[in-house]
Write a structure and sequence with these properties.
Blueprint: H1 3-35, H2 39-42, H3 57-63, H4 70-101, H5 107-116, H6 126-135, H7 143-146, H8 153-163, H9 168-176, H10 181-192, H11 194-210, H12 213-218, H13 227-237, H14 242-272
């Protein structure tokens, strides 16, 4: 293959990737554009990509609304998603390390059962989880959306795959230096697993942040709602105010986009080394 041929193929590949990226980004761009339109412009049957006139009235109206405290919902979602993601790391990392490195009877069977739970539809657990949350008196409080799904199988599977890629010689060297198993886990393994931990944190954060079904079951009062549940109610009350709905969607998207931009280097490395590519 000549250099000119390779150059043409590379240019075509870049062109295809640019077209695919534009297709994926176009809804996001149009969402942001609509949020800065007037009420009439947002509801027009002749869509415009550039707002004319450009106005931030939708943001001022949605942020000052007394009936829909979106800032309260935003803070609730931020606390819930951060707490949930941190709890996922606390529960998944020790379990994954034990299944990856400790040699004990039944390890394979336990891992198989853990992975098998991934095939259970989450909706099946709605009633059992609600009964448990109700017994703990967590209904209409943030622990109800932080704790129940924190000990999931995906985090254990994801981190175990990453731990298996770490050289065992590092742990053996630490053991020769007098470290016990817990010290090896906390001082050697976890620092090396930072890309996987950041990736899992981001995935858990995103899952909790976007969760709609579970919060509407356990969060009852308006001030306790998370952002997806709150915006669902907001949409019901403003189903023809597309400017307000798009402004709310932009506010809901900002933390996730910002978090990914900050952590993308670790996310790419974590996924590439955990066997989840493609």
């Amino acid at each position: 293959m000549t250099r000119d041929t390779r150059g043409v193929r590379r240019a075509l590949l870049h062109l295809v990737l640019a077209v695919v990226a534009a297709l994926y980004l176009s809804p996001l761009v149009y969402m942001v554009s609509t949020s800065f339109k007037t009420r009439e412009g947002a509801g027009s049957t002749d869509p415009q990509w550039i707002p004319d006139p450009f106005t931030a009235d939708a943001y001022r109206e949605i942020l000052s609304s007394q009936d829909s405290p979106i800032l309260t919902w935003f803070v609730n979602s931020l606390i819930a998603a951060t707490g949930h993601a941190a709890l996922v790391l606390v529960t998944a990392a020790p379990a994954a390390y034990a299944l990856a490195r400790l040699d004990f009877r039944g390890r394979t069977a336990i891992f198989t059962m853990v992975v098998a739970t991934l095939f259970v539809p989450p909706v099946v657990l709605l009633i059992p989880n609600f009964l448990i949350v109700n017994e703990l008196a967590w209904v209409d409080s943030l622990p109800a959306v932080i704790v129940p799904a924190a000990a999931g199988a995906f985090g254990v599977f994801f981190l175990r795959q990453f731990f298996l890629t770490l050289p065992e010689e590092l742990e053996e060297a630490a053991e020769l230096d007098g470290c016990n198993r817990w010290q090896i886990f906390t001082t050697v393994v976890l620092p090396l697993a930072r890309p996987a931990l950041v990736t899992l944190f981001l995935l858990a954060f995103l899952t909790n942040w976007n969760d709609f079904l579970w919060p509407i079951y356990v969060l009852l009062s308006p001030d306790s709602l998370t952002l997806p549940a709150g915006l669902g109610n907001f949409q019901g009350a403003n189903n023809i105010r597309y400017d307000l709905l798009m402004a709310g969607a932009v506010i809901a998207s900002l933390p996730v986009i910002a978090l990914y931009l900050v952590a993308q280097r670790w996310v790419i490395e974590g996924i590439s080394r955990s066997g989840l590519k493609g």
